[in-house]
Design a protein that fits this description.
The chain starts with a helix and ends with a helix. By secondary structure, the chain is an alpha+beta fold. The strands form four sheets. A five-stranded mixed beta sheet has the order 7-6-5-10-11, covered by helices on one side. The chain has a two-stranded antiparallel ribbon with strand order 1-2. Strands 3-4 form a two-stranded antiparallel ribbon. The protein is globular. It contains six helices and eleven strands.
Length: 231
């Protein structure tokens, strides 16, 4: 029996209509609307507890979680996990006197696209403690709205261990010269509602930026699916 050529054309058109990022993350069980899960970065520990999959006991895994923190934003308000409850976070490091402002301009553009999407928040943490008094003016230059895009600063005693151990990024204050020079991990992090790092993206890499933009959407889909499934 001959196949209907019109039906074949419709199937082909449907496949081509699927956005590239969504097609990549969809698993073969399309009917179940399942996605390929993003990885979790950091140390993993096998727990003593189990869960069942098709009758088989599978050991649970304890993933790296970013610890509690509290930093002051451009409005003088404290930002912490309580104020970020059930939020997906896009995070980067910066300092106001950096020669290049490309990263800040990119985050400004990216956050503007999520202005009316409260599920996603943006955090930029300064590696220079002296920026605490500069955040307000700096944020006005890039239209950084508190509660959507928070610029944060704090003392190095608290921020540097948090950056190194919590965010898994390097940071060094080279004060061997007359003016401090800050060296830090040049990456953007994607963080889920459980405070786990689900993506690391090289700031200067256009392909990495594109992947970040796609994977924000994937993480949103994962969160909404978990809510629907009661997880």
């Amino acid at each position: 029996m001959k196949r209907n050529p019109i039906k074949k054309v419709l199937i082909l058109v449907s496949i081509l209509a699927i956005p590239g990022f969504l097609f990549f993350y969809l698993l073969p069980q399309f009917a179940k609307n399942r996605y390929k899960s993003l990885p979790v970065f950091g140390e993993k520990v096998v727990a003593s507890t189990f869960h069942s999959v098709k009758g088989k006991k599978i050991p649970d895994t304890i993933y790296h979680q970013i610890p509690a923190f509290s930093l002051i934003n451009q409005n003088g308000d404290s930002v912490n996990w309580s104020s970020l409850k059930d939020k997906i976070v896009v995070l980067n490091l910066f300092f106001t006197d950096a020669m290049s402002k490309d990263v800040i301009k990119y985050i400004s553009q990216l956050s503007a696209g999520y202005e009316k999407k409260p599920l996603v928040r943006f955090l930029s943490i300064s590696v220079n403690p002296e920026d605490k008094n500069k955040l307000k003016d700096f944020s006005n230059q890039y239209n950084a709205k508190p509660g959507k895009w928070d610029l944060l600063a704090g003392d190095t005693i608290s921020t540097y261990p948090f950056i190194r151990k919590g965010l898994l990024l390097d940071v060094i204050n080279d004060d061997s010269r007359d003016q401090s020079n800050f060296i830090f991990g040049n990456k953007i992090l994607l963080i889920d509602v459980q405070h786990r790092i689900r993506g690391m993206y090289e700031i200067d890499n256009p392909e990495a930026r594109s992947r970040l933009e796609d994977e924000i959407k994937v993480l949103i889909a994962e969160y909404l699916r978990n809510i629907k499934d009661g997880r």
